[in-house]
Amino acid sequence: MDEKPIIEIKNLTVSYGERTILKDINLKVKKGEIFVIVGGSGCGKSTLMRQIIGIERPMEGTIFINGEDLTAAEGGKRRKILQNFGVMFQSGGLFASMDIGDNMALMLESYTKVDTDRIDDLIDLNLSAVGLRGYENYLPSELSGGMKKRAAIARAMVLNPDILCFDEPASGLDPVNAASLDELIKDINRSLGTTMIVVTHDLASIMNISDYIIMLDTETKGIIAKGTLAELQNFRENEYVYKFFNRLA
Amino acid sequence: MGEGSQKEKNYNIISDNDVLIFQPITPMTLDNAQIYDEFTLDYKYLEGKSKLIIDFSLLKTYDSYMVVFIDSIKRELSITQIKFAVENLNDEMSHFYDVLTPKGGIEHDLRRYTFWFIWISNIGKTTSEFFKNAFLFIEFFGDLIIKLFSILIKPKKVRWKDFPFHFTQSGVNAVPITFLIVFLIGLISGYQGALQLTLVGADILIADLIGISITRELAPLMTAILVAGRSGSAFAAEIGTMKVSEEIDALHSMGFDVDYFLVLPRVLAVMLVMPILVLITDISGIFGGLVAAISTLDITVLGYLNQLHRAIDFSDIFTGLGKSVVFGFLISTVGCFMGMQVKGGAESVGKYTTTSVVTSIFLIIFFDAVFTFIFSTLGI
Fold first, then answer.
1. Residue A173 maps to which CATH number?
2. Model confidence over A22-38: pLDDT tens digits?
3. CA B15 to chain CA centroid, nearest Å
4. Which partner from A49, A67, A95, B81 sits 20 to 30 angstroms from A146, CA to CA?
């Protein structure tokens, strides 16, 4: 695994008005790893992900993507940096008025000059990769919750991003579907080497997929613990962290 | 190997007797798709060749486009006599290719449908949806009429708590806009009428023109159209959103009748508020006509009002008020019905909200025509 971080965050602070959500966050994500952000409800997990993918801007701090400063970048440069990301939102975020094929074609038609026939092939290829081959003419409303999430992953993958982000992939899914989605995340990571950022509080997912974990704290608004699963299972400096990760074992 | 030709160093094309060797150099990525599409979309290089070899020895960077590139050539050459081979794919590339090569899946049409196919199938879908909705609406409409009468026996079945809110929203809050619009309609009709009446020296008949047209037609019609735009759409959106967020299912599961709980308070509020609004707009429209009359014709305020008194009688006012009750019923019923039809997500809410306004306006004008025919037949 390459040691150079693909994402580096320095002294990140996020506030909404008077309310501080994240305070002085520092982290590095290595290329090719599955980086899991965990924590209780309202600790700022999703906010941190939204900062990383550039939907929101921080009050303080810097975010480097592939060595480029996202926080200072504007216009075309910012768009170029953000094209490093593919995102699967909690509810999928698929456009309800478009079928799955059009949801994916939108990105290819807007950001590449790929021929129309090749666009169809790329849609087929990405849907096959997530186990949804043949569903390009289905509307999102015609798919089950798990299939919607898979389709959202296919859409996120279509431009071959370096980093795939997942917001609560297991939410709303039964354990079997959630586990199969975890397997898909692992498969894509292992076979294509894509870096994964996963926001979750699903214990089974954390145990199954994580290479590296950070835990956010609702009280301090910062990172309370970080390390591999094995390290955090032996993290005795904080009782909450120790209990949280040992419930897994 | 024979003489080779080169294309701007993006790739090499080497001709070796009846074998063509294609060596990609430029990164084979989505960004460079156009460069490689030049080759895959134009097989002129393959004339007289019996084999094509794609040699990946010079390629360093690639993404999913590489898989598509190989597969598309493989697919297109499979229906020709030309043989095809891939050489010098390193382990990493082979693994990438294997992982991403499409496999399995349900039966499907690989190509997305053509514009004409979608167009014709949309006509079919829209037609069948129209008839399906029409039947459902008739059922809903009939059911609601029965429930309206049942209130006379058991008034407590309706959730009266919501009634004042809907009455205020649909009625009181609509007064300023309906007043202004019908005032302007009266003013415009007055000015246009004045121009024509002056030509035949019948200036005073402006009061007849305004009085009858406003009370019988324009005030009820314009008020109904405005209420359909304000309240009908709001009902569709409110109930539709409740449907999406499973609130309607929750009501069903708690044993509530949605018609008594959600629909009838809205229907009764609009039915009751419509004649009041029309009475107000009758006044504003006549006032608009008065402004036009006294400012363009040689008519006094008293003269206008005297002539108005002679021109209109209670039947003119009450036909307008009577119609408005029916319009109110139509607007609220259509709004609630469309809200109930919502399924899926936010997009469906928007679709049915729009449909509710269009359908309400159509029904208002259609029933207005029916009323006009009935009243003229009965001599009212």
1. 3.40.50.300
2. 999 999 999 999 999 99
3. 59
4. A49
